[in-house]
Structure formats: C-alpha cells, structure tokens
C-alpha cells in the first residue's frame, strides 16, 4: 500500500490521498464530483487543458500524444481514474502526463505556481466524475 | 587477430555512441520540416523571409566602426572567414576557458577588442549580428565539439535536457525525443533543433534568439525562467547542438 500526501491544494487546505494499487479508492473531497463542471475543466486551456494531448469527445481540436478519453469510463473505475489524474507517474513513471494533484518532487516550478497543484481537490473530483461518465468508445 | 579485435571494439564503441542518441543521424529533421508549406516557402524565399531584414542590418553593423577603439568587426575579420563559424558554436573560448554561444562571442569581441558595451539579448543589434553571422554558415552542418573542456558542459546540458521540470513536470526529452511528429493541441512538435536561430516567429511578430525559444518552452510547462546567458542555457545549447550534429544551418528560420 502506498501512502502519499499533498501538502496544499488550490483552496489552501491540505488534502491527503491514499493510493491502493493503481487507484485512489477514497474521494479527495466530501462534495461529490460534478460531471458538467468536470467537462469544462478538461477542455479549458487554463485549467486541465487535457486536449493538449488527448482526443476528447465533443472537441474538434486536440493533440494526439495520448489515448482518446472516449470510453475511458468503461475501461477504468473512478478510483483508477482518480490516481491517473492526481499523479499518472504513480502508474507509469515515464508518463508525460502532468501530475495534476501533486506539489512535491517537482523541479524549477515558476514562482507563481510553486506549492500549488494544477487542479484543486474538488476539480480532480469533478474531472473524475466526467471521465467516469464516458462509457461510449468514441 | 589483433586488428579484428580492434575493429570489434571500434564497432562496439560506435554502437554505444549511436545508442546515446535518441534520434539517429539518419532521422534528423529540421524544425522547418514540421511547418505548413506556407511558412516553409516564406523561409526559403530570401526576398520575403522577414528575418533577412536582421541579416541585412547585421551586415551593416559588421562593417560599422564602434567602441572606444573605433573598430569594425570587419576590420579584424576578413569578410570570407566567417563561413562555418556559427556551425561550431557553442564553443570553449581558449583565453577564458568559458563556454560561449554566438551571442557571447559577439559580446566578448565588443568588450575586449573594440571597447564597446555588450549588447543586450534580444536587442535588435545583437539579433542582427547573430543572424548575419549564422547566415554566413547557411547550409553548413552543425559541428560543435564536446571534447576537452566542453565535455563537462555537454554532460550538464544533457542532464538539464532530461530534467523533469515545471508545474507540468515535463523534460525537453518528453516532447522532443519521445513525441516529435505528434500534435500538442494543434501544433506539431518538432525534434527541437537549434539550426534555424535566430528565427522570425509569427507569435512574436519579430526575430528571437534560441534562448528566447527555450524560455517559451519553459514558460509553457510553467517552469522557472533563468536570465539570458545563464550557464544552464549555454550548457543546454551545447547539448542541442550535439543532438543536431550534421543538420544544416538555415538561419533565419521562420516559425509559428
């Protein structure tokens, strides 16, 4: 069992997460994720900017570095999705995917972003909720 | 027998060296190969390429006396002697033992030979002189040396190139070794070679140095930017030159 803790989140309160195998079973927040909000975080270039690398259902423009997110909710459980969004390098150490909920072990982070994860705990939950709803393979 | 063994050693060494390179010499592609045909055509047309304005300005500055000594660069250097020079940078300066990029060399000549102030990075004059000099090496294969004192800088540059950094936790290698040819949103990622710089970038609406381009990559991954001319940038430039060894210089490049 792995134990990791993120010292800060965008709201300022520390949120710890516990990875079990390739998943984070327990949600990061008490408030359930909101899939609609999650979708806008995924496509917003100033938030998740997932389209930089992933094809995303409903989006015309996207990069082709990573597998499509279509059908990802059928391939992976919400707990598995949560670890991949929070810190994909825990699944694949070579992953180019940014760790969206991690602040330790990073190098030369620009001052404006130091100590801040890319997404807040609630945003991670929102994104996971939307990803989990993507059951169709296209 | 002995000759055979030596050949085997040489072969093994050759293989080991080839394995060090993520992109094999035969696979090297200039950044211009990843552009749309419109920008490529613009770069290749000397009359339309906007970077040629800096080259022309550089030629003027090259001949203009300056500094306390009232000397022109052309006064010391024969006009024809600059062919291939840019392709050998970054390079160790014999007198100081320091690693210099082309900008650093220009400024060293200014301060030590003609008694002039060093030119600021991204100033029109430094871009112009750098572009003019690089243009003298048009088509010359990049051939920076990593022997002797340059070796330690090369190793530092290699480490810097592979360091994950920034809030997005990416190294140069993640994009330019592992993902070249793929799209980041709508932009095709090239192999990240230095052979077109200084280059005119549409997004800047002006000419920019190689270091300005590196800072754009660093800012994209939300990493710290160091001051222009920092040792880490110089080392990185040497590593980039080694990766690009054999690619022809094509300054002034035109880029998105």
Question: Can you walk me through this structure?
Answer:
By secondary structure, chain A is an alpha+beta fold. In chain A, 25% of the residues lie in helices and 7% in strands. Chain A has one domain: Cytochrome Bc1 Complex, Chain D, domain 2, CATH 1.10.760. In chain A, strands 1-2 form a two-stranded antiparallel ribbon. With 256 residues, chain B is mainly α. Chain B has one domain: Cytochrome Bc1 Complex, Chain D, domain 2 (Orthogonal Bundle), CATH 1.10.760. Helix content of chain B is 43%, strand content 7%. A 3-stranded mixed beta sheet of chain B has the order 6-5-7. A two-stranded antiparallel sheet of chain B has the order 1-2. At the A-B interface, loops of A face strand 3 of B.
Topology:
The complex is a heterodimer of chains A (138) and B (256).
Chain A: E1 2-6, E2 15-19, H1 35-43, H2 72-75, H3 78-87, H4 121-132
Antiparallel strand pairs in A: 1-2
Helix pairs in contact in A: 1-4, 3-4
Chain B: H1 2-20, H2 37-44, H3 52-63, H4 73-76, E1 91-92, E2 99-100, H5 102-113, H6 124-135, H7 150-162, H8 172-176, E3 183-184, E4 187-188, E5 199-201, E6 206-208, H9 210-220, H10 231-243, E7 253-255
Parallel strand pairs in B: 5-7
Antiparallel strand pairs in B: 1-2, 3-4, 5-6
Helix pairs in contact in B: 3-6, 5-6, 7-10
